[in-house]
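TODO from last week: model methylaspartate ammonia-lyase.
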Amino acid sequence: MIKDAFYSIGLSGFYFDDQRAIKAGAKEDGFAYRGVPLTSGYEAVRQKGESISVMLFLDDGQIAFGDCAAIQYSGAGGREPLFKARDLAKDLEKVVFPFLMNEKWSSFREMCQKLEDLRVNGKKLHTAIRYGVSQVILDTFAKYYKKTMTEIIRDEYSLNFEIKKVPIFAQSGDERYINADKMILKRVDVLPHALINNVETKLGWRGEKLIEYLGWLKERVRILGGDNYYPVFHIDVYGTIGIAFQYNVDEIAEYLGRLEKICYPYKLRIEGPVDMESKELQIEFLSKLRKKLKEKGIKVDIVADEWCNSLNDIKDFIKAEAVDMIQIKTPVLGSIHNSIEAVLYCKENNIGAYLGGSCNETDRSAQVSVHVALATQADQILAKPGMGVDEGLMIVYNEMMRTLRILKRKGLNVIDD
């Protein structure tokens, strides 16, 4: 099946940011940050994002490809260290390409499982490498069988439910006002992320700056959105609420209740209300918070991100009843079969499955993620890469609509209204 394997070094859709340094108060300097990096591997608080495009020549002349990419906040929340493309490309030549060329290609899922087991000096391949190579594996099967990647996934996992558009979640970056307007004008399903990653400048020491922002956002939706537009408000606070309220469960719950009232009639989700610096403590605190919210009748959804770094982590959060929704951060989980199985596990347990990822991915990894979301019918997918809204939204939306139309033409059970 495989005639040749090769790669190219590329850019990603955003930058690598040292989250620890930003939380510690690194000052913005134009688009850069002033300050000393605090996370191992970083040469600056903000530095360019990198990627590796892995390509395979197939026997019939077709070319399959996928992109290795890592998240913006690499090295944070228990995740793998900074992705340095040129250094890690050596692992492709040494270990991955011989595997792809010599292995018997039985099925997408089995190939991905074998990829996860590969070792370099006794260690697993970097998650970014596993992520990109699994994409090219999926694309190879799609090209070989002349099917969409969505169909390959559905066939592998025996999924037969109807296929429809998956709600898209756009992220604003620091331009949380202008970019929110863009989202509203394009009637984005879930918005705006808002990047509330600093207490002093973005949340407020009693949460007052986020209160002000949500009041503004609600009014903009009313003014620009028109009738019958009810997006979900999804805010990522990067643990800053925990810092501001000194990890007091009662005060945090009361604050979230205030936010819910401000946002009404729009649904509110809060991602990462606290960051406890370990998985066990994170699960324990979020479980307490979620229980407290239920006691008070507060219907704000708690979304987990940090410390959900593997399929097993996701299962642990769900078993502990710690969350309403999980961000399945695709580059962090390594091979995309893990993301597929994470979505399916969430759905089996009535937990929201948010197929996320990072602004720091590529157009290709975003396109492949669309097929994962469609095949598994995730509850929402991130518009990626980049922070400009329009570009990532276009990539994800257009790939989704193209695929839905193709599948409908093929006679699959598709709802593409």
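Done. The domain at 2-147 is CATH 3.30.390.10 (Enolase-like; domain 1).
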